[in-house]
Amino acid sequence: MKVTEYFEKAQGKTLISYEVLPPLKGGGMQAIFDTLDPLMEFKPPFVDVTYHREEFIYNIRPSGYYEKTAIRKRPGTVGICASIMHRYGVDAVPHLICGGFTKEDTENALIDLNFLNINNVLALRGDARKFDGKFIPEPDGHKYALDLVKQIKEMNQGKYLDTNIENGEKMDFCIGVAGYPEKHFEAPNMSSDLAFAKAKVDAGADYIVTQMFFDNQKYFEFVEECRKMGINVPIVPGLKPITKAYQLKSLPRLFYLDLPDELVGALEKAGSREAIREVGIEWCTTQSRELKARGVPCLHYYTMGDSETIRRVVEEVF
């Protein structure tokens, strides 16, 4: 079933969903099961699985020179989606990114997903590689998520890259995209970022999932501004509890977000690792309750492999 069909079927009831990361190369599916098993009693209709592009590493050669090598540290998104669907009987939403994909790679990936009866995707540009100063697409790849959405939409209409294909099978993908309550860091201002979001929706995106945030007012304002722009698709809030002291600095740096003064003060006063975790759980629980009370379509939790913390939040809210 499509993500948007779940929202319609819920008739205003707030649903729950999770996002998981593929294990590092060398790991197995048990890591995913260990994350999801304690959370499935809350009956999420779908689970997102992230996709990670290749990274460059530098290995020293016997000659003393360094060799540049591309590796993918977290492979297996499509296989993980199939395993989740088989084990739990829920839908899986693979992330599909621009980085590392040519247009033909994207087409073939969508064909594979269609064969597996996976009909939801989250279309993202993806991050720049670690040592690149900016995002660099593949030759004959997409530079923006907007272009990726357009290609998926064309495949939904049976249009393939090979124009000699007549009466090609029409796909039926429900397309999600990202939204940024505090603005994407590359956008010059919020107005332009909202215009980018509207362009993705106009091109065929069916719903939006937001970047994590810690101030609900910013989400509410984001939704209000989207509606003023004519963006009327469901907007799902993305949430993550803070559990460690270093996240006070790492989350704002990595995700370009602000932490509310009240949250920062409470975390700084926490005298132990466990106290910090309790503050983070309480804050995320309060966020979740308010969002649910306001009738958001779904609460989407970034698990980051920490099922115990997410479970503590969810059992208080649902």
Task: Jot down its keywords.
TIM Barrel; 10 strands; two-stranded antiparallel sheet; 318 residues; globular; single chain; 11 helices
Summarize the structure.
The chain has helices at 3-10, 30-36, 77-88, 103-115, 145-156, 190-203, 216-228, 247-255, 261-269, 273-293, 307-317, and strands at residues 15-20, 46-49, 55-60, 66-71, 91-97, 120-124, 174-179, 207-212, 235-239, 298-302.
List the helices and strands and how they pair.
Blueprint: H1 3-10, E1 15-20, H2 30-36, E2 46-49, E3 55-60, E4 66-71, H3 77-88, E5 91-97, H4 103-115, E6 120-124, H5 145-156, E7 174-179, H6 190-203, E8 207-212, H7 216-228, E9 235-239, H8 247-255, H9 261-269, H10 273-293, E10 298-302, H11 307-317
Parallel strand pairs: 1-2, 1-10, 2-5, 5-6, 6-7, 7-8, 8-9, 9-10
Antiparallel strand pairs: 3-4
